Amino acid sequence: MADLTGKVALITGAARGQGAAEAKLFVERGAKVVITDVLETEGKELAESLGENARFVRHDVTDSESWDAAVAVAVDTFGKLDVLVNNAAIYTMKPIAETTPEELERILTVNLVGAFRGIKAVLPAMTANGGSIVNISSQSGLEGLMNHSAYGSSKWGLRGLSKVAALELGLSQIRVNSVYPGPIATPMVPYLTTGPGSFPTLPLERTGLPEEVAELVAFLASDASAYITGAEVSVDGGLAAGKFIPRGM
Ligand SMILES: NC(=O)c1ccc[n+]([C@@H]2O[C@H](COP(=O)([O-])OP(=O)(O)OC[C@H]3O[C@@H](n4cnc5c(N)ncnc54)[C@H](O)[C@@H]3O)[C@@H](O)[C@H]2O)c1
User: Fold this and answer.
1) Computed from CA positions of residues 88, 27, 123, 79, in that sequence, does the dihedral angle turn out positive or negative?
2) Could you tell me the distance, in angstroms and rounded to a whole number, from the CA of residue 249 to the centre of ligand 1?
3) Choice between 98 and 248, residue whose per-residue pLDDT is larger
4) Residue 182: which domain range?
5) pLDDT of residue 154
6) Is 68 a domain residue?
7) In the chain, how many H helices and how many E strands?
8) 18 touches ligand 1 (CB under 6 Å)
9) In a domain, 248, yes or no
10) Is position 245 within any domain?
C-alpha cells in the first residue's frame, strides 16, 4: 500500500473518472491534492468532499497561464509540489477518413501538448527537492488500435515524451513514468460495463475500475517507487500481453 504522507500532488482532469479516484486515494494515503479540471461543478464538489487536504482549481491544460496558476495554488496553499499526474484527456474513435486535421490537432493540443505544458510548469517547483511525474497514456499508445488515429497518436506521443522527460529530469531527481490503462469504466467510455465477464476478450475477462488505476498511480507517486523512472506500466487486465484467445473460440 503506497504511503503518500506529506506529499503534495496536482492531478489534472480530476473532477471525475480515474483522476477523481486518484485524488480520493491520494488523500486517503496522506497526500494533499490540487484537483484541476475544466468541469467546475464536479471538481468543487469532489474537493469539498475531501476536506482540508484538497483544493479545486479550474484549469485548462491547453493554457500555460492556467498551468502557472494551478501550480501556484499547490505551492501557496500546501507549501510545495511533489507529484504531477498528467491525467486530463479527450477521446474520439473514428476512422482516418472521417477524422479532420483540426480534430487531430485538438486532441494533440489537449492530450500531448497539455502534458508537455504541465511538465514545464512544475519544473521550477520540483527542481529543488525532486518529484514524480506520472503521465497517463493508454493501450492505444503501445500498439496500433483501429479507429484511434487521433487519440492513439496523442498517446504514442505522450509515451515518447515520458521517456525523454525521464532522461532529462533524472538529474534533478524528478522521476517520470507512464501508465497504460486498458478499458476502464469511466464517463470517457460510458458504454463499458463492469463486473466478471464484462470484457471477455481480455485475459481477466473484465473492464478495469478507476480505483485499480489509482493504486498504480499512487505507487508511482510514492517513495516506494524511488528507483523507477522512464518505466511504462500497463494496468489493463492482460491486454498488452499479446494475442489472447477468448473462451469458446
Ligand atoms: N477510460 C478508459 O478506458 C481509458 C483507457 C486508457 C487511457 N485512458 C486515459 O485515462 C485518463 C483518464 O481518463 P478517464 O477514463 O478518467 O476519462 P474522463 O473523461 O472521465 O476524465 C478525463 C477528464 O479530463 C478532463 N479534461 C478534458 N479536457 C481538459 C482540459 N483541456 N483541461 C483540463 N481537463 C480536461 C475532463 O473534463 C475529464 O474530467 C485519460 O488520460 C485517458 O485518456 C482512459
Assistant:
1) positive
2) 33
3) 98
4) 8-238
5) 99
6) yes
7) 7, 7
8) yes
9) no
10) no
Amino acid at 239: L
Q: Is residue 182 part of a domain?
A: yes
Domain count of the fold of the chain = 1
What are the residue numbers of the active site? Answer: 151
CA proximity to 227, closest of 175, 163, 179: 175
pLDDT of 118 > 90? The answer is yes
CATH at residue 127: 3.40.50.720
Ligand 1 pocket mutation pick from 188, 209, 213, 232 by most atoms within 8 angstroms of CB: 188
DSSP SS3 for 83 = strand
- Distance of alpha carbon 112 from alpha carbon 34, whole angstroms: 21
Question: Is this model's pTM higher than 0.85 or not?
Answer: yes
Distance 174 CA to ligand 1 centre (A): 24
Q: pLDDT digits over 17-70, tens only? A: 999 999 999 999 999 999 999 999 999 999 999 999 999 999 999 999 999 999
